[in-house]
Amino acid sequence: MALVTRLLQGRLGQVMGLAEGQTIDPGESLFQLGLDSLMAVEFAAGLQADLGLKVDFEALSGDPSLESLAELLLAELQPEGVTPTKPGLDLGAQAQLDPDWRRPDRQPLPGESLGPPGEAILLTGSTGFLGAYLLAGQLQRWPELRVRALVRCPSPAVGLDRIRTNLERYGLWQEGWEQRLDVVPGDLAQPQFGLEPQAFAALATGLGGILHNGAQLSQMASYGQLAPANVGGTRAVLRLASLEQPLAVQMISSVAVFEATAYRNRPILESDELQEWRGIHLGYSQTKWVSERLVWAAGAAGLPVSVYRPPLIGGHSRSGAWHQDDLLQRLLQGCLELGLAPDLAWELDLVPVDYVADAVTALAWRPDAVGRAYHLHHPEPVMLKDLLVQLVEDGAALEVVPMERWLAAIEANATNPLYPLRAFFHQRWGDDQLTYPELNQQGLRARPSAEATVASLAALGVRCPSFAELIAPYGMALLGAGASNR
Predict the structure, then answer these.
(1) Confidence of residue 26 (pLDDT cuts 50, 70, 90)
(2) Do residues 441 and 345 lie in contact, with contact meaning Cβ atoms separated by under 8 Å?
(3) Do 57 and 146 sit in the same domain of this protein?
(4) Residues 28, 167: one domain?
(5) Angle separating helix axes 37-51 and 66-77, nearest 10 degrees
(6) How would you classify the pairing of strands 347-348 and 248-252?
(7) Of 220, 386, 404, 422, which shows the fewest CB atoms inside 10 Å?
(8) 159 and 203, same domain (yes or no)
(9) Residues 380-422: tens digit of each pLDDT
(10) Contact, 341 vs 389, CB < 8 A?
(11) Do 14 and 50 share a domain, yes or no?
(12) Does residue 229 sit in the same domain as residue 129?
């Protein structure tokens, strides 16, 4: 046990870039130590190389420590070892409102908390990629609006600096906006955002609504690791929205809620109720389904809610500015650098970040948006290999190869952006043991309809750019980052 634990400490230290001699408490949570999604994938791959064992993602689920992982690996190494079976996760049971949650007795006056959002709104997730554009959209759309931004930070000054830096990164910041921003230091993963009861209650005073965009995103982490921020944060939002008068809640959800086995290759309308969850495998996707069900339950109880379901979010449709190092950027960049695309009907569901932000900005707070879901995926999804072929420069070669050769090329290139994700692409889920690329094949993915959403947005002057319009800005952003030097 001690030998395996020391091996794990050494490997984890390498992955996290710890100084030689710096010790790691074997009993402390790996994720509390700072292990992020990409580090976790690299850690799992390293353990596989060290021990000759495939370390499944489930080994890093819950709240793992080096000690618990060492026990699991020892059981795998011993011929008679038996790995304990974990009880199944019942997402339906997770998606129940808190027993003491109640819709406030006082109802809003006509138009009081719908339409224009009033004097102030609360925004979560303002320091993220989409969050930057959502914040800019709200400030531009409503010139007198004040925004209270929940930010995980030690002080309002530090939080404001983070927001400004984030918006400046994408060319969005405007002088004077700092006068309209009220930073609220808080944490989605903590009950009541980590605020004292009086401070939490005061946060609701004067609000016209809540734009809930904040979430912890990870391809590696389990439901248990992501639920405090993603599900717990949503519960706190709904509680805040029900303290005084009912506040309008605009929730940024995800197309991940369609991943249940029951919805494979099935058309889904915006008005369909998504009750099925079995077959949703990724922890992030599971938290999104649970969070959305909580919001709909609150809506059924009388809270004015609207839900927006974006897919993978790509770069800006004109500037080409991308969120660096996320899954989508790594996927496209990695394939372009390799000069290889997997021969798979991998349907790539992506839209530019400004389309999602413009859609939410146009629809949020409208009385006719209450109780509605909006599908913000691209009306004409594209195959990964087709998009890659269009992105490469004239005359540049892009070879379509079998999946096994594509994965082998990633394994052989430690500097490729996809290298840290190689274990993720090998992982198999469910009874049919499908990988992430296979789960996203045409014919297996759900077929959501955006017809009603597109019509609503067209009336408001918002449309999704075609992929033909995106090729030039995306090509400059991705090929200019070094792919053309392959």
Answers:
(1) confident
(2) yes
(3) no
(4) no
(5) 30
(6) unpaired
(7) 404
(8) yes
(9) 999 999 999 888 865 567 899 999 999 999 999 999 999 988 8
(10) yes
(11) yes
(12) yes
Decide if pLDDT at 81 tops 60: no
Residue 166: both structure tokens together: 């984030």
How many whole angstroms from its chain centre is CA 323? 12
Of 268, 258, 242, 284, the closest CA to residue 424 belongs to 284
Average pLDDT on 213-229 reads 89
When pLDDT is cut at 50, 70 and 90, the band that residue 113 belongs to is very low
- What is the 3-class SS of the chain, one letter each residue? CHHHHHHHHHHHHHHHCCCCCCCCCCCCECCCCCCCHHHHHHHHHHHHHHHCCCCCHHHHCCCCEHHHHHHHHHHHHCCCCCCCCCCCCCHHHHCCCCCCCCCCCCCCCCCCCCCCCCCEEEEECCCCHHHHHHHHHHHHHCCCCEEEEEECCCCHHHHHHHHHHHHHHCCCCCCCHHHHEEEEECCCCCHHHHCCHHHHHHHHCCEEEEEECCCCCCCCCCHHHHHHHHHHHHHHHHHHCCCCCCCEEEEECCHHHHCCHHHCCCEECCCCCCCCCCCCCCHHHHHHHHHHHHHHHHHHCCCCEEEEECCEEECCCCCCCCCCCCHHHHHHHHHHHHCEEECCCEEECEEEHHHHHHHHHHHCCCHHHCCCEEECCCCCCEEHHHHHHHHCCCCCCCEEECHHHHHHHHHCCCCCCCHHHHHHHHCCECCCCECHHHHCECCCCCEECCHHHHHHHHHCCCCCCCHHHHHHHHHHHHHCCCHHHC
Domain, as residue range, for 471:
330-348+384-446+466-485
Question: Could you tell me if 261 and 446 are in contact, meaning their C-beta atoms sit under 8 angstroms apart?
Answer: no
Q: State how far the Cα of 148 lies from the Cα of 156, in Å rounded to an integer.
A: 11
What does residue 250 show for φ and ψ, rounded to 5 degrees? -105, 115
Structure token digits, residue 64:
């793992």
407, 396 contact by CB (below 8 A): no
Q: Which two tokens stand for residue 253?
A: 């959800």
- Pick the closest to residue 288 from 98, 95, 446 (CA basis): 95
The identity of residue 304, as a single letter, is: P
Using CA atoms, how far apart are residues 307 and 252, in angstroms rounded to an integer? 6
Please tell me the distance from the alpha carbon of residue 68 to that of residue 60, in angstroms, as a whole number: 9
Q: Is 23 left (phi over 0), alpha (psi -120 to 50) or beta?
A: beta
Same domain membership, residue 63 and residue 147? no
Both 37 and 149 in one domain: the answer is no
84 in a structural domain:
no
Task: Domain count for the chain, please give it.
Answer: 3
